[in-house]
Amino acid sequence: MAYHFENVKLEKGMYGRSGHTFSQTLEELDPSEHYSGTALEGLDAFQRQLKRFDIKVKGAGSDMVEKFFHTSESAVLFPEFVSRVVRQGMEEESILSDITATVTRFDGMDYRSIASVPTEADKKLLRVEEGAAIPQTTVRTQENLVRLHKRGRMLVASYEAIRFQRLDLFSVTLRQIGAYIGRMHLEDAIKVLCDGDGNDNAADTFKVGTSPISGTAGTLSYDALLDFWSQFDPYTMNTLLVSNDMMLAMLKLPEFQNPLTGLNFQGTGTLTTPQGAKLLRTSALGSGKLIGLDKNYALEQICGSEVTVEYDKLIDRQLERAAITSISGFAKLFQDASKVLTV
Fold first, then answer.
1. Residue 50: inside a domain, yes or no?
2. What CATH number did the domain enclosing 225 receive?
3. Which among 11, 68, 69, 209 counts the fewest CB atoms within 10 Å?
4. What are 48-55's contacts with CB under 8 Å, separation 24+?
């Protein structure tokens, strides 16, 4: 049986279409729905092209990098392979999905988000009497723009140095590049959670030992955590970002040393705080700090572009200095949905 994917013409120009990724262009030329009920069901258009040129990218039997360059058409697939593996590295250890309420795709470098800043009276669900005015929720655009930042790494390697390397091994380096880029985006997100996005919406900061947080400055206690948790009404502190030293301090609290908590931690490495928040440790947060947030209302991620590579250089085997970048930014949604605790 002849398949359409075997006759798709691959060329550099498929990367340069405005508003379309290489994968989207491939899907338009070779829709996946045409393969329903066949042996190729479950593969996307790019994976079918790998099959077309018999390029194995995973496992002990993976091909060498030079397999992509056996023909001019198969070489066109190499930048997309690099992009996909870098994205995999960004997503493997990323906690961004655990702290962002929504992701917005945006083509540009300056983005204006929306906001609703209710007063205490606006938050109350009052009964509406017959003929009375219905309370309003005002949604407006933010005064200042949210600036997106390009983050990336430079891939520095000659084609001769990597041509005989297995794709599975080369992928390890690409995933590490993705992890670096993901870490940069996480640092941007944490900065916006703490300091705001330039629209006078920095998070409220509390300090242990200073009202309303009980305890002694410099020491994390369970009572201090409870006081911090109580500051979130009407939001819910369902996520807790902690620095490495604060994670260690929390593990040493007597309240975390019950048998069930210990069993979960020893068996899976996962902890759930007594307040029911998801506990996330990151070295991107400064020592002595915790960020509590309502994940559903705190942060918007704006993606200016997916992972992009200098496809001309990669296709032409000019890998000496090929940039791999990603454009992203963050906007605060509801100011009171995130708060900072300093120990």
1. yes
2. 3.30.2320.10
3. 11
4. 48/3, 48/5, 49/5, 49/8, 49/10, 49/77, 50/77, 50/81, 51/5, 52/5, 52/6, 53/77, 55/167
Same domain, 43 and 81: yes
User: Is residue 152 assigned to a domain?
Assistant: yes
How far is residue 243's CA from residue 172's CA, in Å, rounded to a whole number? 27
The total number of structural domains that make up the chain: 2
Is 265 exposed, middle or buried, given 0-12, 13-18 or 19+ CB atoms closer than 10 A?
middle
Tell me, yes or no, whether 136 lies in a domain.
no
The reported pTM is 0.85
Same domain? For 81 and 16 the reply is yes
Residues 165 and 53 both lie in one domain: yes
In a domain, 231, yes or no: yes
The answer to whether the peptide bond before residue 212 is cis (omega within 30 degrees of 0) is: yes
35-76 pLDDT, tens digit per residue, is 998 989 999 999 999 999 999 999 888 999 999 999 999 999
**In angstroms, what CA-CA distances link 155 with 82, 305, 321?**
10, 19, 6
pLDDT confidence band for 306 (50 / 70 / 90): confident
* 194: enclosing H helix or E strand: helix 167-195
For residue 83, give the DSSP letter: H
Q: Of the candidates 213, 72, 119, 162, which has an alpha carbon nearest to the alpha carbon of residue 204?
A: 213
Both 230 and 82 in one domain: the answer is no
Find the domain containing 61 and state its range: 4-98+146-188+307-328
* DSSP code for 64: B
Residue type, position 17, single letter: R
Listed in sequence order, the DSSP H helices in 237-322 are 244-251, 259-268, 311-315
The token pair that represents 201 in the structure block: 């919406």
User: Which among 80, 12, 46, 107 has a CA at the least distance from the CA of 324?
Assistant: 80
